[in-house]
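Thread title: Can someone regenerate the structure for this chain?

I was given the following input by a collaborator and told the matching structure tokens would be attached. They weren't. Posting the sequence so someone can regenerate them.
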Amino acid sequence: MCIKILLIGISYTLAGCAAAVYPGKGREIPHQFRAGTAKVNITPDRSLPLLGYGPRMSGEVRDSIYHRVVVMDDGETSFFLVSSDICSVDPSIYERVLDKLKKRYGIDRRNFWWSFTHTHSAPVVGPAGVFSVMLGYDTEAPYDKEYVNFLEEKLIRAVGEAKKAMVPARLGAGWGYSEANINRRARDKNNKTYLGENPDGEIDRKIGLLRLEKEDHSLLALIASYPIHGTVLPPSDKTISGDVTGIVSEYVEHQLGVPLLFINGAEGNVAPVKSFSGNLEPFKTLLGNKIIEANDRIGNATDQVKLSTGSFIFETPRHQRLTNWPVYLPDYLRVLSSGEALIRMPISFLFINDEIAIWSAPCELFCEVSNAVREKSSFPYTFYYGVTNGTLGYLPTRKEFALEGYEVSVSPFSPDTAENLEREVTEYLDSK
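Best answer:
Regenerated them for you:
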């Protein structure tokens, strides 16, 4: 059972090869395209609980963590994208920040995406959400409310800074490729699944890149999407770090002199090569240089840019083993008169002219789904932005559910969810 509620261009209620991009038929350019950026440091100044492995407190700072913001404006639509060096947050935190942004700047839901790089070396930010139910916590994992408030206020200020920094801009898109990742659903001789490396497993190694230029064609910012867990640093490491995504972002920024928003993709079953090695340096070459090379291949960017947004609520049965739900997420669950509980997951879209379609979901999606959507899409550049606007947990495919393993054991979704989501997103893109 899967129910889709279409909401195109309005808010819903919840309490690629390189080329220039042109508008295409039927998409009038209302005004001059503009863009702005901001980057603010969110590194804590004290020891805090870390998220991503077992409970542990942070020690020293290995490298700073940040909010990075891009705002794009075509004269009618202002779209805000934030990439934060955080593992993830519960959707309730996204809702709270969204409410503050709407009150301060008039930003509505469809035009604000908050994405998380998924480093496993950053502080816990708010309640554990669905994971607390799946793992049977009697109480929520500890977190520092003062730091969460600090993080939220820094984000809101950064959005304001990006708005003030907007200048006439141009946009281009391209693809890159990197072998910095690998399927992490390893199999033993009895075909039992465990966290490791599976070179025969499905993988996505494409880098989806957006290039923002100033009016004089000088670089303004890059937005790169690529699936990879932030797990180069091992569970025993207690330092604050952006892990692989943070190190790659800092490296590219140092080389090019502009912000890079790293957006994680469908990383649910995707790890960095040599996870837990503790050696971040090779990823500057494995992934950072590949982003730079992809940027170099992007041809003439255009100032003729039209933005449009869309969304729908994807409803799918909750896994039968799950009988509870976080009380602070009432609008992400609907219980039918029959007693069946449906998870309500918002799926969001950003369309740029007729060539670029970006979709996002608040989950740790398996890469088979985003690969299939991209292959079926008529848009030359179809990007998936994962771990965005919170997370409801892992979303494996039916085949991987049958093989069990860690991600399956903590997923709140029923086994048919992935194939239904793939179909619904594909149909939505086909309708555009």
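Confidence is low (pLDDT under 50) at residues 1-17.
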